[in-house]
Specification:
By secondary structure, the chain is of the alpha/beta class. It has a single domain, classed as TIM Barrel (Alpha-Beta Barrel). It is built from 14 helices and 13 strands. Helix 6 crosses helix 7. The chain is globular and about 60 Å long. The two termini are about 25 Å apart. The relative contact order is 0.14.
Length: about 375
């Protein structure tokens, strides 16, 4: 079976020939330090790694690596209109005015200044919103999408829209301030989120005009969960965030034939019925270590209505600290839970971090191919 057919059948809750596999198109990429070691281990050292996401320091996965692991997806992304600019004090600033720093000894960048931290309602009109129609955002995107669509058999996943309507407002405002706003400053929040939704709709319009007829999946993001529960109450989510998500997701479906893949970390169990209701077709990363995110439970309750794009291996404990054998057993366990009946795309829970060995990465994906053949043997230990 061809990769595109395989993955689209899984999204339709049919069993293909094997579980489809993804790397790098669903917030499940590889940290650059680990990727350099992996390429050396595989004997693939021809090209310099390209950073996909500055904050997380993950890479664009090269074609030889994608082929080595039989990956069924190919990823395209909207670009920023302007990359990070280095300031005199050594920090960086992005096109939104968010400032970033990399603490000594850290493997990642942290936000250190939020441009709307002190903003009032009147300040929102004075804030210089980036231009969603800047041609740099979609430069070369149509050509790449058209080539993948016509000349390969892969599923095309479009991303680059950030944490649209819950995560990104906290980037601009600061987490603590935005969360307080949701309770005590709703007039500000509603105006703020309406402006952000307008930006997202225009960005999506600009992008889908170029590639909407080629892409199969559009990935959006908004983290609602912690390990112990949700960040926001379901009632507050339904009042403020859900209606705006619904507008954005409806727009995507009206302007493309794409499925919607939502990345949302942590314990999001309480939101899954709402996500299904507003048109989400698949969720990622399926954080199996979080409260109420047991894979058997999730499959039993929601497996016929939403696809689990992730959850293939715990990346907090098993992948970095387990043995190769434990990684293989974890993969088998998650496939047995999530794969029957389709509705499952294999990828580990989140980005593969800087401390994972190449041997375990190979074991992870090789076991997914070996054990992920349908029909799934539920009795194998």
């Amino acid at each position: 079976m061809k990769p595109r057919e395989r993955l689209l059948r899984a999204l339709s809750h049919d069993e293909p020939d094997r579980v489809p596999v993804d790397i790098g198109s669903s917030v499940t990429s590889i940290h650059i330090d680990t990727y350099v070691r992996l390429k050396k281990y595989l004997g693939i050292n021809k090209t310099k790694p390209r950073i996909l996401h500055n904050m997380q320091q993950v890479v664009v996965v090269d074609e030889p690596v994608l082929r080595r692991f039989s990956v069924d997806t190919r990823h395209i992304s909207v670009s920023s209109a302007r990359g990070w600019q280095k300031l005199e004090d050594g920090r960086y600033v992005d096109e939104w005015g968010i400032k970033w720093t990399k603490p000594e000894g850290s493997h990642y960048y942290d936000m250190c200044e939020h441009p709307l931290a002190q903003a009032t309602l009147e300040d929102l009109d004075r804030y210089r919103w980036p231009d969603p129609y800047n041609p740099r955002r979609v430069e070369g995107l149509r050509e790449k999408a058209e080539d993948l669509y016509n000349n390969t058999d892969y599923t095309i996943v479009l991303s680059g829209f950030g944490e649209c309507l819950f995560g990104f407002p906290a980037y601009l405002r600061g987490y603590a301030q935005f969360y307080m706003d949701l309770i005590s400053n709703k007039r500000f929040v509603n105006a703020f989120l309406d402006m952000l939704l307008d930006y997202e709709l225009r960005l999506m319009q600009n992008t889908l005009k170029e590639v909407g007829k080629y892409v199969h999946v559009v990935r959006v993001s908004d983290d609602f969960g912690t390990e112990k529960g949700s960040i926001i109450s379901p009632s507050l989510y339904r009042e403020i965030i859900k209606p705006r998500q619904k507008k954005l997701y409806q727009f995507i479906k009206e302007n493309s034939g794409a499925k919607i893949l939502l990345h949302s970390c942590g314990s999001i169990y309480d939101f899954i019925p709402d996500l299904i209701q507003i048109g989400v077709d698949a969720i990622n990363p399926v954080q199996v270590s979080a409260k109420n995110m047991d894979t058997r439970k999730l499959k039993k309750e929601f497996g016929d209505r939403i696809t689990f794009w992730g959850g293939g291996c715990d990346t907090q404990r098993i992948l970095p600290f387990g043995t190769v054998r434990e990684v293989k057993e974890e993969v088998k366990r998650r496939i047995k839970d999530l794969a029957p009946g389709g509705g499952f795309v294999f990828t580990p829970v989140h980005n593969i971090q800087y401390d994972v060995s190449p041997e375990k990465i190979c074991a992870l994906y090789d076991m997914a191919i070996e054990f992920g053949r349908y029909p799934i043997d539920k009795n194998t230990k």
